[in-house]
Amino acid sequence: MRHDHLLTAKQLSRADIETVLDRAAAFDDDPTAAGERHADELLALCFFEPSTRTKMSFETAAKRLGGDVVDMGSVESSSVKKGESLADTVRVVEGYADGVVLRHPKQGAAKMASEHVDVPVVNAGDGAGHHPSQTLLDLYTIREHAGLDDISIGIMGDLKYGRTVHSLAHALTNFDVRQHFVSPESLRLPRSVRYDLHEAGAQVREHEDLDAVLPNLDVLYVTRIQRERFPDEDEYEEVAGEYSITPETLDAAKDDLAVMHPLPRVDEIAAAVDETDNATYFEQAHNGVPVRMALLDLLLDDD
């Protein structure tokens, strides 16, 4: 993999993805294989939005590689509160660390930050834009359960604002995958994403009803309706809770259907689904550690 930064899933080829996933599998099989590969290296965590899984798994990954992290902390306790620009923040942080993991509410923030520093920048989510490291762990989970070729994937929920959806959809164009998008009319994929998928030759179908497509799916990727992205509370209330997966929903699915979710969930997957063999989302979250170990190992490697 030859990249200075990971900003969007669009920059990843099939070979890039397989390189990361294969290395992640090696770390997963033998955590001691990481050894002290990045001893004395520091990773800066700059999160301008809340995070649990992404932030903690990057910290865990860095430490399992023998390195450590420096954490900007909350926006409220940082110089951002005083009006410091993102460009100035990352210029300063560059002097403290060997790489930067950035989450920011504005789309394109990671790309802008990467233009001001000479250390690797990983986009950990930029508004409704992209979340490429989440995509890599999603692909790792899909590969473990269904493979990455000749499969059908349903992606359901908030397709308009869901950055995990946008990244995953782009990355899946590298494989022989039939993509089915299920959402209310108001939360369909943005036109720009649909155009990019069409240009990439993706097999894409859009639906408002899950029932028609569920029996054919190998993977169902469910997403939260993201209240914080809606410009209007009334618009959110119109679609909140419109889709919900229960054990009864899965009666029509294949026995080995993998139900995934980038988390956190609200009410779109009932807690009772956790007890089924289909529930894959907690394993998916755990896969963030070996995948992010592999990603950091590649980005921080001087050779």
Structure description:
The protein has two domains: 9-130 and 286-299, Aspartate/ornithine carbamoyltransferase (Rossmann fold, 3-Layer(aba) Sandwich), CATH 3.40.50; 132-285, Rossmann fold (3-Layer(aba) Sandwich), CATH 3.40.50.1370. The protein is of the alpha/beta class. The chain has helices spanning 14-29, 53-64, 86-94, 109-114, 132-146, 163-172, 191-199, 233-239, 281-286, 288-299, and strands spanning 42-47, 68-71, 99-104, 121-126, 151-156, 177-182, 203-207, 219-222, 258-260. The protein is built from ten helices and nine strands. 34% of the residues lie in helices and 15% in strands. It has a five-stranded parallel beta sheet. Strand 5 (151-156), helix 6 (163-172) and strand 6 (177-182) form a beta-alpha-beta unit.
Q: Between the first and last Cα atoms, what is the distance in angstroms?
A: 11 Å
- Number of helices, where a helix is a run of at least 4 consecutive DSSP H or I residues: 10
**How many strand segments?**
9
User: Helix fraction?
Assistant: 25-40%
Flag low-confidence runs: none
Structural class: alpha/beta
Secondary structure layout plus pairing:
Blueprint: H1 14-29, E1 42-47, H2 53-64, E2 68-71, H3 86-94, E3 99-104, H4 109-114, E4 121-126, H5 132-146, E5 151-156, H6 163-172, E6 177-182, H7 191-199, E7 203-207, E8 219-222, H8 233-239, E9 258-260, H9 281-286, H10 288-299
Parallel strand pairs: 1-2, 1-3, 3-4, 5-6, 5-8, 6-7, 8-9
Helix pairs in contact: 1-5, 1-10, 2-10, 5-6, 5-10
